[in-house]
Amino acid sequence: MHQAWTKAVPRLCFSETGNGPPVIFLHGIGGNRTNWFGQQEFLGKYCTTISWDARGYGLSDDYSGPLDFGDFSHDLYKLIKEKGIERAHLVGLSMGARILMDFYLKYPASVATLVLCDCYFSFENGLTDDKKEEFIRLRQSPLEKGKTFADIAPSIIDSLVGEDCSTQAKDQLFDSLMQLRKESYLKTLRASVTFDVEGQLSDFLVPVQLIYGQQDKLTPPSLGYFLASRMPQARVDVIPGAGHVSNLEKPDSFNKVLKSFILDHLDDACYVRT
User: Which residues, including other chains, have CB under 8 Å from residue 197's CB and lie 6 or more apart?
Assistant: First the structure.
């Protein structure tokens, strides 16, 4: 696994492995690029795989001032261009999937396919009232009152994972939460509650693989079926026994779905021809 940083400001850390058409992975709001290492190693024999730390996350630079959710999309575009990519397969979980929905609407020519995992399409209309309240209550409110990530991590993890989630997956989630930066995380939370692409779902004109955990309490599979009914080229798979972090909880099942979809469309992604 090769680790590097972009030249863009803020500098973005990314990890790369494999050879072939490019696949880029985007982590969730409480994660970082290491959450995708299992998928990168799995697909590395077929593809060049890249996972990033979003601005303010992991080893990427932090930033000052407010966050516009579209900043993530502009950062991703800079990474794609710096790597000489014409079109990429793009994979995102939760916040990462929301970034990809925003990215597609801004930069459709850079997208070969989308894999959108365990995500909502609208905070206001995609989540139930109790889940919206829980999302803020478990995350934003405690931090604003002086709690630490160590204080809130157990309750966040319990709210996300399925009933038989392994200790290894829970430990990885805990480690990811411990690496978060409070102010950047809070800015991302505030930007997330205004996210809404419901009125543009029919504009997604590339193949889309939707993956949801069967036991995902935050974004249940019903959201995936709704998206599949609105996106012209979408299909949905549900991972048995998984919660909201399906790639970490049930990696074998997740990887099987991911591989099948990516290999079906492998050559749709490419680097710029010189």
Answer: 101, 102, 105, 121, 122
